[in-house]
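User: Fold this; tokens only.

Assistant: Input:
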Amino acid sequence: TVPEGIAEVFVVGSKESSISYYYKKERDHGNIFDRFLVVEECKREDKKKPLGIKNFPVKRKEAILLLSFLAEKEFQLNLEAVPDMQKEENKHRLQIPYGVSLFIDKKNSCCLKVFDLTETRIKRLLMSSFDITKMDLKNTHIEELVLVDEAALGFFYDSIERSDLYVEKVSFGNKLNPKSEKFLKLIKRVQEGETPAPKKIKILVLSRNSFFGFLEEAGMISQRKIHVEDLAVTQNGKETGPETNTRIVVSKKTNIKGNPRVLLFIEFGPEVSHLDIDGLQRQYLSPEIDIQKINIQLTKNKITVRGNLYVLQFFKKNITVTEVSFFASSGKKALESTEITLAAEEMESICFGGKGMSVLSSITNEKIEVRHMVVMDITWFSNEEEEIKKKEFVVRERLYMRNTGIFFLELLGETVFISAIEIEVDRCMEYWGGFGKTNGIHIKTNALVGKITDLKTKQNKR
């Protein structure tokens, strides 16, 4: 294990796309760490880059100590950092502790002789233009094998019958050709559960406008559904996509850039933790018709939808997150027949703005239980009024309403419980969201509404 306090770092310089950190020399450990330079990403565009070690100690005892630290922090080790260690005579090769990721290519493969990779568990192994059969991996368990390029994929596919190699998950990098024969055959083997083969697909990257072409070729998979944990797609242009029943089912993370019709071929699992829809293009049916840009943010426990509610049609199963926000410019029409079920026993927060209140009529829950609820600047929703009144609301801590959000009080049924209400109204507000002018608002509490904690009237400066 790493001695306590030995991992203290401080900034020593910066580069264009990264910050360099230097390990502080501790009095009790001499100069063990004072020669190592760790490169750690800092800019937003570099967040997906793995943490890596640049320099590696020559002495064995120092290397073992550093590897323990790298495992704890889940760093990636590029073997180009360790050639000097081969100069020192070592009777025993180094074991890679669980947590360290390895990047191996043809250039740095000569450094493999420093390490013993047999009978161990490797968290992540990245292969580029190198034959995996040349590695001694007897009784080795690889949690994730990343095939960076075509050469690595070919070598692995040809060695897949090896009994001494166990790969739990496989990931496909962006340098692969997703329409190549071996690529598609490997996808098929994984999906159809052939043995031996990786059990799951961890990451699938379909860049350079290859998404629709891949779906066409993937028709050879009998199940018609390709299950992946993480999916990244870049598909530009205005293509409508192929006529195929093949779908990609994502269980954890999705990143989509370009053509919004990609969404028609993707299904989201109930435990999706991240959805990034970046720069979806506007699609024009005619010069007069402008389909609004979809804007949705999904993280581990929170969904935020802005603009068009149409994207909710792609959530086909229960929503298990505890925080949801809907700020919409389109109402019930965009949802069509979509039904949404909030699967969490008690929500942390629900927020509605604009026409986002329309979502309530599509929520199947008869009872909505939440700690915090926010209704702000909503627009008129007469078509859904009766459906919303049928629901039972339980707000454990606070209901906050701003401006036209106060009209939500008219939709509360007789069985509602609200611990406290906070209201904020702008006296000079000109737009009342279809509710018309009002001279005054009468608010009272009852046995089901504990108290009004704060009533604010905001005066704009003219």
